[in-house]
What we know:
Bound molecules: 2-acetamido-2-deoxy-beta-D-glucopyranose
Family: Belongs to the glycosyl hydrolase 28 family.
Distance between the termini: 83 Å
Main location: secreted
Shape: elongated
Structural class: mainly beta
CATH superfamily of the domain at 224-392: Single-stranded right-handed beta-helix, Pectin lyase-like
CATH topology of the domain at 224-392: Pectate Lyase C-like
Organism: Artemisia annua
Protein name: Polygalacturonase
Active site: 239
Number of strands: 30
Amino acid sequence: xxxxxxxxxxxxxxxxxxxxKVTYDVTSFGAKGDGYTDSTKAFLSAWSYACNxxxxxxxxxxxxxxLLATAITFAGERCKSSSIMMRIYGTLVAPSNYNxxxxxxxxxxxxxxxxxxxSGGTLDGQGASLWSCKTSGKxxxxxxxxxxxxxxxxxxxxxxxxxxxxxFHILIDACANVKLQGVTISASGVSxxxxxxxxxxxxxxxxxSTKIATGDDCISIGPGNTNLWIxxxxxxxxxxxxxxxxxxxxxxxxxxxITVTTVTFRGTQxxxxxxxxxxxxxxxxxxxxxxxxxxxNVKNPIIIDQRYCPDNNNCPNQAAGVKIKNVLYEDxxxxxxxxxxxKLDCSQGNPCxxxxxxxxxxxxxxxxxxxxxxxxxxxxxxxxxxxPTSCL
Length: 392
Ligand SMILES: *[C@@H]1O[C@H](CO)[C@@H](O)[C@H](O)[C@H]1NC(C)=O
Ligand SMILES: *[C@@H]1O[C@H](CO)[C@@H](O)[C@H](O)[C@H]1NC(C)=O
Ligand SMILES: *[C@@H]1O[C@H](CO)[C@@H](O)[C@H](O)[C@H]1NC(C)=O
C-alpha cells in the first residue's frame, strides 16, 4: 500500500511538470516560411489554441520568412492560458504593397492580453515604398504601426528586431508592467514618422539594452505615462528621446516619474527633449531624471521646447499650459552640433520649476566657439561642472 501510494504521487508530479506547458507550432496550422504564402490564418489559429489552453502555451515560429498579408489582431480578453510565449526564430514580413495594411492602425496588434512574451525574431514592415510616397508630397495613407500593444499587462518583448516600419515600430498604449529588453529597431534616418517606441498612458514600462535607429524619435513619451525606466539605449540616427508632444488636449493626463539613464545619442536631431504645444492644457510633467548621457554630434542635446506650434496653427494664446517641474540633468557629456547646447524654453504662463543641472559637460563641435545655454521662464539650480555656463 505504502509503496503504491508513493509511486502514484511521483507520477502525478512528473506529469504535471511535463504538461504545464503546451507548444503550438504555426507550421502545423499551415504557416509557410517561404516568404510569399499568407500565414495570417495559421497564426490566428495557433493563437486561438494557445489562448484557449488551460496551461502555459508556447507559439513556436520556426526559422523562415512568413508573410502576414493583412493586419492581424491577437485578442486576449477570453484567454484561459496563464501565459503565452510567442517564440520567433524566423521573420514575419508585411506585404510589399503598403495599401494592404496602411490604414489599419497596426500591422500586428495585441489587445487585452496578459502575461505574454514575444521573444526573438524579426518583424519587417517593408515601409520603404510608403516613405517614398510620403516624401514625394503625394497624398498617402498614414501607415501602420508594426507592433501595437493595447490595454495589456505583464508583457515581455525580448531580443526582437524590427525593421522598416511604415510608421511607429512599437506602440505601447494603456499597458502596465511591460519590459522591453535587447530589442533592435532600424529604419532609414530620413524615413518619416518611423518612431522607434511610442508610449501612451502606460505605467511601469522598462526599456533596457535597446538599439534604435530611425527617421523620427527613438522613444517618444506621450501623455499619461508613469514609472518609466529607460536604461542602456543607443539612439541614432533619429530625433532623440522625447517627452511629448504634450498639451494638445485641455484635459490630459500628466507624465510622472521617468528615468533615462546610461544612454548614447549619435548624430541625432535632439538628445533629451521635453516638448509641449503652445496651447492651454492641464497636463504636466513631473519627476524626470536624465542621467549618464553621452551626446555625439547632437543638434540639441538638452532641450525643453514649450513653443511647439507648427505653422503657427491651432495655438490661440501661445502660452503652453503644461507645467514642467523637477527635472534633473546629471552627467550629460559630449558634443553639440549647434552652439546652443542647452535650451530651456519654458512657458510664460507656467514657468518650469525645479530644473537641476549637475555635471553638464558639452562642447560645440565647431572649433573656437564655446557652447552656450539659453533659458526662458526656467527656474532651478546648477552644480558641478557646467559647460556651457548655466543660464538658470
Ligand atoms: C476557443 O474558445 C472559443 C470560445 O471561448 C471558441 O469560439 C473557439 O473556437 C476556440 N478555439 C479553439 C481553437 O478551440
Ligand atoms: C518610479 O518608477 C520606478 C520604476 O521606473 C519605480 O521603481 C519607483 O517605485 C517609482 N517611484 C514612485 C515614487 O512611484
Ligand atoms: C570640452 O572641452 C574642454 C576644453 O577643451 C575639455 O576640457 C572637456 O573635457 C571637453 N568636454 C568633453 C565632454 O569632451
